[in-house]
Amino acid sequence: MCTRYISPEVREIEAFWRIDRRSNQRKDWENLLTVCPLALATFIRRADEVDYARELVVGQWGMIPPWSKTHVPTTARGTRMSTVNARTEGVEKSPTFKDAWARGKRCIIPATSFDEPNWETGKNVWWRFRRADGAPWGLAGLWNTWTDLDTGELWDNFAMLTMNADAHPLMARMHKPDPTLPPDQQDKRSVIPLEANDFDRWLTCTVEEARAMLKVPPVELLDAGPVVA
Question: How far apart, in whole angstroms, are the C-alpha atoms of residue 161 and residue 157?
Fold first, then answer.
């Protein structure tokens, strides 16, 4: 589960991903490099159902459920929800994410790095994950658009897809372990990186093909270690 990442600057995103156009450049958006839940950040999606055309969009990191009365994700009873990550297991049944998944609203989330908590010392030590080849991450995500019924304002929003990483030699070391469960049942989570030759496929393929693309990162791809203050 990822709750903090660093975004490349817009000019870097446009150059690396060869963005055809921008859309929805919100007036309240600041190009913050460190992205936390509910912040406005950039993501890449397919443009107007046109094959292989990409657009850069500003949206909220945190999917807004269709029943939510505000852009802050809430349950039907009004309790705050965490929707920055979408579990791939059961995503097709999740009330929050199933519509985006079924309609192929997949996106790419640019990241210079992402952070995960490590509890091996008995306290939280943040680790930073970069690509070993120096390229930016293109993380698999879902997006949707929510309408504020009071103002008519449209809110593009997105979430990172995650999957179980209990068997991964590095990702399984992240997050606080549950001492009551064995190592292979901790449900440690990992984000899902996409490779450059899969970017267009991820944005345009069928749901069945997208499911087959969901994989945890190979350990040799990861350059990771404690965050240096």
Answer: 13
